[in-house]
Design brief:
By secondary structure, the protein is of the alpha/beta class. Strands 1-9-8-5-4-2-3-14 form an 8-stranded mixed sheet, sandwiched between helices. The model has no long low-confidence stretch (mean pLDDT 97).
Length: 394
């Protein structure tokens, strides 16, 4: 039996949507993308949605938009509070725009940022918190939102791994001033590559639309809070107002996204049924630390951290999984402080970083996807039960 990390969620609907776009001969960003943006915003109860070429570019464009606000823009040298575990492109735009990062440890049982350390990280230079819900599990968004409101900070919510997750009946990705999502192959919906920004701010919406496409005004309405339209249409068609990017998605991605979005609820329901099997097998075994669900997880994957109180060699456990065709990988990007690229960052750690290192050294995750994988999960349990028992103290 092969236990994959990820599987395609496409059917004939997605293939037919692609054929329709190809037959139309309009492949660059257009009406299909607009329809997907509208449907996505409606699905998650947001005012505005902007589709981008990836979740990473959603982070870049979303962060950039905060630097061009008319009032209280971010500036180089401002401090931002971040978790020690996330994907690399959570952090890269922060470095690229000259922000100083203040790293907090994570909770070992949820893998999310330890929100009890927020006050300790706060200084007069703090301007933003980046909240990341790891692998489908909502972080302490209510606490973080209140902290940001109390101190006049921006909340940037990287929800790229957690589409469909909920906390207190509210969709993750909608707590922040900006929320970002990914529609990469292995994520909750797949548009090949793709990302989405959600916001309630008309100004941020217009800034992100301009930054997504060269920093020009072409995609903006005549009445906009970020520029005054001139009278010469010849120049207005190529008028550049911001130092932007080309982070546009394809029409193919928009069309596929519409079909995938229709399936999202049912696909997450299956993921949650699989999670019940996983939790029932592993939650009472203290050899393994699994994610404690906060709110309603959308269960991107199943994480396991080998309990450090047992001297189990992770490499030996991984070899046992390889021999039985169980795919696995590092949890998200591991502890970002452990990567070579950290030398390019202006950063500090707040308090001791302990749990993120444990996760980095003793953790891994296996796949979850929207079909019944009870057999694979039970096989995983049997393999790990033997491997951990036989390798203890080895």
């Amino acid at each position: 039996m092969h236990y994959n990390l990820a599987e395609s969620t496409w059917g004939e609907e997605e293939i037919n949507a692609m054929r329709r776009v190809i037959d139309s001969d309009r492949l660059t960003m257009g009406e299909e993308v607009k329809q997907f943006e509208s449907a996505f915003a409606q699905k998650f109860g947001a005012q505005y949605a902007i589709m981008t070429s990836s979740g990473s570019s959603a982070n870049l464009v979303g962060l950039a938009s905060l630097f061009f606000k008319k009032e209280n823009p971010l500036k180089p040298g401002d401090e931002v509070i971040v978790p020690s575990i996330s994907w690399a492109t959570t952090y890269y735009p922060l470095q690229q725009y000259g922000l100083k990062l203040k790293f907090l440890d994570v909770e070992l049982n949820t893998l999310n940022m330890d929100a009890s350390k927020l006050e300790e990280a706060l200084t007069q230079k703090t301007k933003m918190v980046v909240a990341v819900s790891i692998l489908g599990n909502p972080c302490s968004l209510v606490t973080i939102r209140k902290f940001c409101d109390d101190h006049g900070l921006y909340l940037f919510e990287d929800n790229c791994e957690s589409m469909g997750a909920e906390l207190n009946g509210r969709s993750c990705g909608t707590f922040g001033d900006i929320g970002t999502f990914s529609t990469f192959f292995s994520h909750h919906i797949s548009t090949m590559e793709g990302g989405v920004i959600l916001t309630e701010s008309e100004e941020l919406f217009h800034l992100a639309k301009s930054l997504r496409a060269h920093g020009w005004t072409r995609d903006l309405p005549n009445e906009s809070p970020i520029y005054d339209r001139g009278t010469n249409d010849f120049y207005e068609a190529y008028r550049f107002i911001l130092p932007g990017y080309n982070a546009r998605p394809l029409e193919l991605s928009g069309a596929i996204g519409m079909e995938q979005l229709k399936k999202l609820d049912s696909m997450i329901a299956v993921r949650r049924k699989n999670a019940e099997v996983f939790v029932n097998l592993f939650s009472e075994d203290d050899r393994f630390i699994i994610q404690k669900e906060n709110g309603k997880s959308s269960w991107f994957s199943f994480t396991l951290v080998l309990n450090p109180k047992y001297t189990v060699n992770r490499s030996a456990v991984m070899e046992a999984m390889r021999k039985t065709n169980i795919e696995f990988r590092i949890i998200t990007g591991g502890c970002f402080l452990r990567h070579d690229v950290i030398k390019y960052f202006d950063y500090e750690t707040v308090g001791k970083i302990i749990n993120a290192h444990i996760v980095h050294d003793r953790g891994f995750f296996v796949g979850n996807f929207p079909r019944d994988i009870r057999q694979q999960i039970e096989c995983l349990w049997k393999v790990l039960d033997v491997a951990v028992s036989s390798k203890r103290n080895s």
